[in-house]
C-alpha cells in the first residue's frame, strides 16, 4: 500500500472515531455513529484488522476496570497473540504503532492479577451524566406536575427510522456529499419494576434492524451496512429512569458471538436508548411552558456542553406533546487518536443544532411518536507526518419515531 493510501486510511479511521465522539447523547445521533463505525471503506485492509485487535484490548480494559481480572487477562493474551500474527502478516504497516501496542499489552499481561475465578455477573449499569433542569416559563393555567408512571409488566414497542448525509473537507479538497441508506430499528421495552421514589427499571431488546434499499447509495456501502445491522438484531439491555424522564444509568450488549466492531457500537448506542424520554421540570406547568436542560458530556476524550429547550405544546389527559431544540458545542481541546497512541487530534470547534417534536404518554416509558432533525459542524486538525491537516465535517440526521 502506498504512503498516500495509508494516510487516507488513517484519516478515515480518525473521522470514524470522531463521528462517535461528536454525537453521543444527542437523541439517537449515536446511531448515526453506529453505522459509520460498522461500514469500513474497504474490506480486509491492515488498518481494519488492527482496529479489531485494538477493540479486543479495549474490551480487556473494560473487564479489568469492572473487576473481571481473569477474563481481562485472557482477553489481553488473545489481543497480544492476534497482534503478533498481524505483525508477521503486515511487517511494514506502521511499525511504531504496532510496537507501542505490543509493549502495552505485554505490560498488562505481566501485571499482577487476582487468581480467583471471575464471578458471574449481569451487565453493570453505568451512571448517566448529571443533568440540570431550569424552568423558564410556567405556562398558562391550569398547570400540572408531570411525572412518568409506567407499571411493572408494561410492554412497549417503538419503531425508529434514521436517514443521514455527511460532507467532509480536508484542506482544499472537498469530498462529494455522502448519503447513507435509511435504517429501520424496532425496540421492545419491558418495565421490570418501579421503586417507591418513582424510578423505573426496564429491559429492552432490539427485535429488528434493517437497512432500506436506495438506488442513490453505493452498493458496497449498502451491502456492508445490511450485513452489520443483521448482527445487531437481538441486542439487549437494561436501565433505570426517573419519573421525570432522566436516565439513572443504562447498559446494552450485543448478541453472543458478535464481532468486536458490533460490541464497540453497542457501547456507543447505550445512552441513545436511555435518553428517548422528554426530561420534565420539577414544577407544575401548563400549555406554553418552557424549560431548559443542560448537561456536560465527556466522551472519548472530548468535553461537550449540551443545552435542550423544551416547550409544552399540548397536554390532554396523559398525552403530552413538546417541541424540543438542541444545541451542542465544544471549544479548543486535544483528543488522543486511538489508532496512533500518543498522537493528538486538535478539535478547534464543534457545534450542533437540532429541532423536533415528541409526543408521549405519561403512563408509558418511551415516547409514542416524534421527529428530530439534527445538524453538526466540526473543525479539527490532524498531525500527518509532522504537518497539520485541516479537516471540516458536516453531518445531517433525520430521525422519526412511531409506535409499532
Separate helix tally: 7
Rg on CA atoms, Å: 22 Å
Q: Give me the strand/helix succession.
A: HHHHHEEEEEEHEEHEEEEEEE
Helix content: 25-40%
- Biggest sheet architecture: 15 strands, antiparallel
General form? globular
* Terminal-residue CA separation: 48 Å
- The poorly predicted ranges are 3-44, 114-129
What fraction of the residues are assigned to beta strands by DSSP? 35-45%
Tell me how many strands there are.
Answer: 15
Return the domain count. Answer: 1
Secondary structure category: alpha+beta
Mean pLDDT: 76
Structure description:
The protein is of the alpha+beta class and about 400 residues long. The protein has one domain. Helices cover about 30% and strands about 40% of the residues. The protein has helices at about 5-25, 30-35, 45-65, 70-90, 95-110, 220-230, 260-275; strands at about 130-135, 155-170, 175, 180, 185-195, 200-210, 235-240, 245-255, 290-300, 300-315, 320-330, 335, 345-360, 370-385, 385-404. The protein has a 15-stranded antiparallel β-sheet that branches. A hairpin with a 7-residue loop joins strand 13 (about 345-360) and strand 14. Helix 1 runs antiparallel to helix 2 (about 30-35) and helix 3 packs antiparallel against helix 4 (about 70-90). The relative contact order is 0.18. The model is unreliable at about 5-45 and about 115-130 (pLDDT under 50).
